[in-house]
């Protein structure tokens, strides 16, 4: 694979420090001294101080300007005052330097003058193609390359964890903590203001970095949620990613116009986004490194069922209490496990969970109990709590745990409680990379982290496709309802319009009719049948119950007439010209109905978020709500329902039958479809949604709109790009054989394996430039679990032997400039020469145009004459590759 385009920035071989000096306390002094002390500048790496005033810095000859350096320079680190930056970026660009780190300590960054200065800097940088990190007070470091370009006075140990932070102060604090706990890093990157290179691009680099096995991200705010989500999902597919975020609470009081907006906070949406990205969220620096140490190793769990083994019941109960806090299951042991324990434990021991093996337990008893628990089918992990007591042997018990850990794929977590008496055995366990802790609660928390990470990894794999055999929505009607309201200047759909929108997406709603007067209400009620519900119809009013604007269960015409007259009189006095009358609908009174709420709120960073929970007029009081980012599929909808308290009311209880959960999931999927296709929807409430054993019905609904920005691309309003079902096409080959061209899905993994295995060695080499016979699991995941926001992979499939087979794949990945993409195509040998390549490439061009891309480019082996001829036929220009004579660079303007 060719080097990542940010390699000169994050792993440079030649570095110029502009502002390097020997003045104590300056950033330039610290950075240059750190680089020299780390050993950078020896061997293949070169270090150049640039200083107008001195001829040498720390014994190294200094250059007056970067132009005086005659050798190529990968990276410039600029530590001079902010006023010098535009001129220095000019100098770097003219000298051919394409990466710079700005570490000017006087750069404020938030005032108007600083913003004007930044605009000038970035204009110069764009002119020369210079990428900028910062402004950052800290800088960055890569210990394995002896590259320590940080404003930090301390040692950074090499390791396999990458630290990516938005705060220089927090970066320094984490490094100080790590130094005292012997934790190493592959890269340390402090983004600072991230005015150019941001979190997303940096994560992309770390995904491809072979020295990084896991990633720790400290984040304070999200500037581009879509880029962040795309990068997080790409990273989490191949490496554990942990996120520590501050600012979990909103200071401002919510005054939302819908229940959904009032109930969720920004942190709820961020938390949902992280779950969907397959990453683990942590609450403290201590958790960060504890979880990183475990996730970075071979510890994995398939569930959240824990067994606790202890020789001190008090310490064991500490673990139990923490497990209850975190909703970690402590299941009953299987009968065969109890039988094993009966055979090896004293009669007075506890043979349930937690398993108390008594204070004087020898190593053999610890081992036998742990072996039995690991073999239990009801257990996903074991926490062993050791307390030093008479009869115990901490070293021998530690050795037994080390040996035992290698015999099971279930995590064995160890809590060694004590001080000096267990120091030696704790060091032994740490040396062997065991997950050992000084408190039982920490062990439980790490098991929770493992279970949460595994759960999030399952959510990551959920790529919602089209709704299969479901009836397509009536998008024309839906758009007409929305456009009519917006063209008249209204941002709020009334109840009738809102329900028309729901009907267009096949969500069951109650019949609702408008009445201008009390007489109209009476006539409608007589035709509709009693009992009925009356509601005020006021332009812009979202919560009718707050103004006494709902009358339920009117069982007589007299009641209808009386309530209608009173409601209209009150409303005319209060709302004046905004008063339009009343709405009348049947009283929906399903015997076993439960009131639920489904909604949509728009987060300023992550876009639309779907809410689900208990409904009714007291929805804010009970505050029972869960949040998920669309698009949803059945698995994600089920997870959303499961995270609420109201889920317990959906099953059988007392004399009430279970509700039709599939109907609830169908509503969630339809709402997901709605917000994907209609970016005008800013907020939505379906409250109540009545669910019973016979189905669901929306009794009330309200939708708030906003005009999307001009020129917004399809699905640009969403943090997670939906499955691009509009790219699916059923066509046929030259010989008339039917064929389907569609975007790839994660479930295509097995078909892709068969496809690659069936390629000839020549075809395989021409596509992958490698002699691999089958795709490694990591590459397979990379090819099938794609982010449609940054990449499109189209597969051509045909029916064969009663099933679907893939006969060709074409894909492109969007380049960092977001105007061009790099493509690849491979066709099964027996399907070549049938016109398939041209058909697939034209579909790929259309998908690129759909993303407003202007250029398609790619690499072709110079020896692959057939492909080069095909490229010429398609209108590509063919050039010699600038970096490899064995390749050709092909480019087509769309």
**CATH classification, class level of the domain at 725-893:** Alpha Beta
Relative strand content: 15-25%
Question: Which strand order spans the largest sheet, edge to edge or round the barrel?
Answer: 31-32-33-34-35-36-38-37
Mean pLDDT across every amino acid position: 89
Helix content: 25-40%
How many β-strand stretches? 38
CATH architecture of the domain at 725-893: 3-Layer(aba) Sandwich
What can you tell me about this protein's structure?
An 8-stranded mixed sheet has the order 31-32-33-34-35-36-38-37, sandwiched between helices. The chain has a 7-stranded mixed sheet with strand order 9-8-11-10-12-13-14, with helices on both faces. Strands 20, 25, 26, 27, 28, 29 and 30 form a 7-stranded antiparallel sheet that branches. Helix 3 links the parallel strand 5 (75-78) and strand 6 (99-102). The longest helix is centred in the middle third of the chain and has 21 residues, at 440-460. Helices cover 35% and strands 23% of the residues. It contains 28 helices and 38 strands. Mean pLDDT is 89; it is low at 251-255. Among the domains are: 7-153, Rossmann fold (3-Layer(aba) Sandwich); 299-460, Succinyl-CoA synthetase domains (Rossmann fold); 725-893, Aminopeptidase (3-Layer(aba) Sandwich), CATH 3.40.630. By secondary structure, it is of the alpha/beta class.
């Amino acid at each position: 694979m060719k080097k990542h385009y940010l390699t000169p920035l994050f792993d440079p071989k030649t570095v110029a420090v502009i502002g390097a000096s020997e003045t104590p306390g300056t950033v330039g002094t610290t950075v240059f001294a750190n680089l020299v002390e780390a050993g950078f500048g020896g061997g293949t790496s070169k270090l150049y101080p640039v200083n107008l005033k001195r001829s040498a810095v720390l014994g190294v000859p200094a250059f007056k300007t970067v132009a005086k350096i005659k050798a190529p320079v990968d990276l410039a680190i600029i530590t001079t005052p902010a006023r010098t930056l535009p001129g220095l970026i000019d100098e770097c660009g003219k000298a051919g330097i394409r990466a710079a780190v700005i570490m000017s300590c006087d750069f404020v960054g938030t005032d108007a003058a600083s913003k004007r200065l930044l605009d000038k800097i970035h204009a110069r940088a764009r002119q020369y193609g210079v990428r900028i990190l910062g402004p950052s007070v800290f800088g960055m470091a890569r210990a394995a390359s002896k590259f320590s370009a940080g404003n930090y006075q301390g040692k950074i140990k090499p390791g396999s964890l990458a630290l990516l932070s938005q705060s220089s102060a927090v970066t320094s604090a984490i490094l100080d903590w790590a130094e005292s706990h012997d934790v190493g890093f592959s890269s340390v990157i402090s983004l600072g203001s991230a005015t150019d290179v941001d979190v997303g691009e940096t994560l992309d680099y770390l995904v491809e970095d072979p020295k990084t096995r896991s990633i720790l991200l400290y984040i304070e705010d999200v500037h581009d949620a879509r880029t962040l989500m795309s990068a997080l999902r790409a990273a989490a597919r191949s490496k554990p990613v942990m996120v520590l975020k501050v600012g979990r609470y909103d200071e401002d009081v919510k005054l939302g116009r819908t229940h959904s907006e009032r109930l969720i906070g920004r942190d709820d949406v961020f938390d949902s986004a992280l779950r969907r990205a397959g990453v683990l969220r942590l609450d403290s620096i201590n958790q960060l490194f504890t979880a990183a140490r475990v996730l970075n190793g071979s510890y994995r769990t398939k569930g959240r069922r824990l067994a606790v083994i202890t020789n001190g019941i008090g310490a064991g109960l500490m673990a139990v209490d923490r497990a209850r806090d975190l909703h970690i299951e402590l299941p009953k042991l299987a009968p065969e496990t109890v039988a094993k324990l009966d055979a090896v434990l004293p009669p007075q021991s506890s043979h349930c969970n937690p398993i108390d093996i008594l204070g004087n337990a020898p190593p053999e008893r610890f081992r036998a109990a742990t072996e039995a628990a690991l073999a239990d089918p009801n257990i996903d992990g074991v926490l062993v709590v050791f307390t030093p007591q008479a009869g115990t042997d901490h070293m021998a018990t530690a050795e037994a745990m080390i040996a035992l850990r290698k015999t099971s794929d279930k995590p064995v977590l160890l809590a060694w409680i004590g001080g000096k008496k267990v120091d030696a055995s704790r060091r032994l366990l740490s040396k062997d990379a065991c997950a050992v802790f000084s408190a039982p609660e920490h062990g439980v928390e790490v098991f929770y982290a493992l279970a949460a990470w595994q759960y999030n990894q399952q959510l990551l794999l959920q790529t919602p496709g089209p709704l299969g055999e479901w009836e397509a929505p009536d998008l024309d009607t839906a758009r007409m309802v929305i456009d009519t309201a917006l063209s008249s200047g209204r941002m709020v759909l009334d109840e009738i319009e809102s329900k028309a929108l729901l009907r267009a997406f096949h969500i069951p709603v109650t019949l609702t009719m408008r009445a201008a007067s009390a007489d109209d209400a009476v006539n409608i009620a007589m035709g509709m049948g009693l009992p009925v519900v009356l509601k005020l119809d006021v332009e812009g009013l979202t919560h009718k119950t707050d103004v006494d604007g709902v009358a339920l269960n009117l069982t007589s015409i007299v009641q209808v007439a009386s309530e209608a007259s009173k409601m209209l009189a009150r409303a005319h006095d209060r709302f004046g010209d905004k008063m339009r009358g009343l709405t009348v609908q049947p009283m929906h009174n399903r015997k076993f109905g439960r009131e639920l709420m489904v909604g949509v709120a728009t987060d300023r960073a992550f876009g639309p978020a779907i809410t689900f929970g208990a409904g009714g007029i007291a929805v804010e009081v009970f505050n029972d709500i869960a949040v998920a980012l669309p698009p949803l599929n059945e698995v994600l909808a089920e997870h959303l329902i499961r995270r609420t308290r109201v889920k317990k009311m959906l099953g059988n209880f007392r004399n009430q039958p279970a509700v039709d959960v599939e109907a609830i999931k169908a509503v969630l999927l339809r709402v997901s479809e709605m917000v994907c296709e209609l970016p005008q929807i800013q907020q939505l409430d379906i409250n109540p949604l009545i669910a019973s054993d016979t189905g669901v019905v929306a009794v009330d609904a309200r939708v708030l709109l906003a005009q999307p920005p001009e020129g917004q691309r399809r699905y640009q309003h969403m943090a997670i790009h939906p499955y691009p079902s509009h790219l699916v096409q059923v066509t046929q080959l030259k010989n008339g054989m039917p064929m389907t061209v569609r975007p790839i899905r994660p479930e295509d993994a097995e078909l892709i394996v068969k496809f690659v295995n069936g390629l000839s060695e020549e075809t395989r080499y021409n596509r992958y430039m490698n002699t691999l016979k089958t795709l490694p699991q990591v590459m397979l995941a990379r090819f099938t679990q794609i982010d449609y926001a940054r990449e499109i992979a189209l597969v051509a499939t045909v029916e064969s032997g009663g099933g679907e087979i893939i006969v060709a794949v074409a894909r492109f990945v969007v380049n960092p400039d977001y105007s061009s993409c790099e493509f690849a195509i491979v066709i099964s040998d027996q399907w070549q020469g049938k016109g398939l390549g041209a058909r697939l490439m034209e579909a790929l061009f259309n998908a690129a145009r759909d993303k407003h891309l202007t250029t398609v480019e790619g690499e072709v082996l110079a020896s692959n004459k057939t492909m080069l001829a095909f490229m010429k036929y398609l209108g590509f220009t063919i050039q010699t590759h600038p970096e490899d004579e064995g390749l050709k660079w092909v480019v087509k303007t769309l």
